[in-house]
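Weekly structure sync - notes
Attendees: PM, LS, DV (DV joined late)
Agenda: review two folding runs queued last week.

Item 1: First target. Sequence and structure tokens pasted below for the record.
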Amino acid sequence: MERKDSFHQSGKGATVTRAWMINMSFNYLVLHYQIFGRFRRRRMKQFFSVIAPKSMDHLLDIGGAAHTWVADAGEGHFPVTLINLRFGSGSGDKRFTYMVGDATNLPFAERAFDIAYSNSVIEHVGSFEKQRAFANEARRVAHKIWIQTPARSFPIEAHLLAPYIQYLPRKVQHWLVPLTVRGMINRKVAHQCVDEVRLLTLREFKGLFPDCRILKERILGITKSYIAVRL
């Protein structure tokens, strides 16, 4: 009888834990779309204002998704080529072309596109050498470029949603993953972020895009991200 009660209690505990995790996941998604979605939409308005794409311009989105141009853009109907390591289900909209490829070695001719666009991707490609290759390829294949990345100096690390964790050794970051917002929701993904993300300093970013103007996206006066722009 005691075993049955103990089993019943542990089952209730597991149910409560699952419910808590589901609630946390939901809250994370709400936070993500409310806060980061607002920044993406504001950034997209700035993109249209600064880059001013025309209806016949061909845009390359490096590491992006059709959702960006369907939900976040809100304007513009130019053709978009999306290149990524893999894709899920794509949009049926004929304006989108999907290609599997490596952002550090793009399979396109020089100036093949009018615009090269990327949002929060360059920090995911690995080493600084690969980031340099990413930047060189983006600059090579398009006339205009718009490349955004989170600022390393921003107090809250954007992928784990934890303060100043980006300044710690990777081994220590892995230890702290369970205490981060992302780690509480999906520990495996959080560990992947620690392994693959390399945030850039302003000096590094300027060095990668020497022919570009660097815009700074701020929140409460603090630089949240950098955008390399070439017109």
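Item 2: Second target, run right after the first with the same settings.
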Amino acid sequence: MYESSVIDYLEKLALLKFTDEEKKRIESEIGKIVELFSELVNVEGLDIVEPLYHVVEIELPLRDDEPLNGIDTNHELLSGNAVLENGYVKAPKTVGE
């Protein structure tokens, strides 16, 4: 369906490492998403319909801000998920040269 380079690119952008099984599943899911979007091309009258932001008009309650006891200076929250370099999260370059 999709070249493995697309999955590898997504993996790099998300700072994740997928197993071969996960890559196959993601490839299948992306294929399904593209199929659904390609079906939208055939729907007539979409240009006269207002965009829908939420199915039901609701207002979500907000909670009060509460101060934390301290700042995560040791980056414990990011320890298993991100690449840290000199205390900063290292991410791939996303803007072309």
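Discussion on item 2: The chain has a mean pLDDT of 81.
Action: LS to circulate a short write-up before next sync.
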